[in-house]
Amino acid sequence: MRIDELDVPGTFTVTPDQISDDRGTFYESLRTDEFERVTGRSFEPRQINYSVSRRNTLRGIHSVTVPPGQAKFVTCVRGALRDFVVDLRVGSPTFGRSASNVLDAGSGVSVYVPEGVGHGFLTLTDDATICYVLSSVYVPGTQIDIDPLDPDLALPWGYTQPPLMSPKDAGARSLKDTAAAGLLAEWPEKP
User: Fold this and answer.
1) Which of 28, 82, 93, 115 is the most buried (most CB within 10 A)?
2) Residues with catalytic annotation?
């Protein structure tokens, strides 16, 4: 298992070692002991969610207020998607910066998103399925939604036609307005 930090501090890709033979492929998707050893961050799963989306669906940018906060591992388990993390931690040296990866079911690569960092994705295939392993359960009223098309973020989604979006995501506030409302976590965040 290889763990690499992304350009947004505290976010990581986790690339499994795959064992393949005539029967197929096996790999360990998540080893919390190994993740903690390499990153110094503990992670205890509390909830697992799946999202299945049509091609060209844009979801995000989502986060959770701190407290309660919510870290997550995201993995594409069917199809492919362009995944983004955005630093939403006020005072962070990389506030507003993003990092992206193309995740696909064949690679098994996961992205770790710490508390205070936003997450979103654009599906590249039909029935793209993402699995979220979450550090806390859903608490109504704590979700933060940032406009994924915020010109100040200028995220390079790469779509060729207008994406499918929920009314909630399409009507989300800009990063600037969300910060002004006092909804974002402060830097430094604790592992």
Assistant:
1) 115
2) 62, 132
Q: Does any domain span residue 131?
A: yes
Return the CATH number at 132: 2.60.120.10
Tell me the pLDDT tens digit for each residue of 75-106. 999 999 999 999 999 999 999 999 999 999 99
List, for residues 36-80, the tens digit of each pLDDT value: 999 999 999 999 999 999 999 999 999 999 999 999 999 999 999
What the block records as the tokens of 110 is: 């996961």
Total domains present in the chain = 1
